[in-house]
Amino acid sequence: METRDISTAYRLLAELFVNPTRRNDACLAMWLDQTRLCMPHVAEQVERFIESDGATSSHEYVSTLELSPPCPLYLGTHMFEEPSTCSGISTSPRNAFMLELSGMYEHFGFDLGSIEMPDYLPVMLEFMALSLESSKEDTLGLRRRLIEKYLLAGMAPLARGFAKFDSIYGLLIPAIELVAAEDLQLIGDVPMWKSPDEQKGNVSLNVINESEPVEIMNDMNMPEVRP
Fold first, then answer.
1. What is the CATH number of the domain that holds 15?
2. Cα(122)–Cα(63) distance, rounded to whole angstroms?
């Protein structure tokens, strides 16, 4: 499996999670054609979604995924309980999750700015595609950490949310999992990155069950990796 094949599949999935009125149909067609050739099992799942009623409906998208949605595309909202008080925000597990994602993006030179939250699923998928361009330099295992601990860990709770509201976007979850599995095979035996505290056994790797914030990666003496 080539790096560009996996990158294309990530971009295809990211675009499908965009409001249908803003999707780039030309790019979707091109990426789907490429995915059919190199990852037919992923393309088959994507085509099930595309052929479903509502796949191109802006109403379906907005009513389910936007405007105070019942099933938002922010993975952290599915993975962590929201703090009940303002003072709880600083120690919220989701806060730690967001800080680490932001650190990863900056580490690879991915400038999110103030456009979106770092745990927005299309942003995460786009980052997975872009960071593949620097994958040979990722000797620290940062991408493995993001895939295993955050992207894949968020799929089950997100899928439950989609199922609860009978959303057709649940059809894309298996496709994401298949692409991520191919990505992990490409990464090979590079171990997952751990913070200094985790290496000492002071912090659990499972941030989802933690209440302590994780330090931003740039404060952990990590070397710069720029595409």
1. 1.10.3480
2. 18
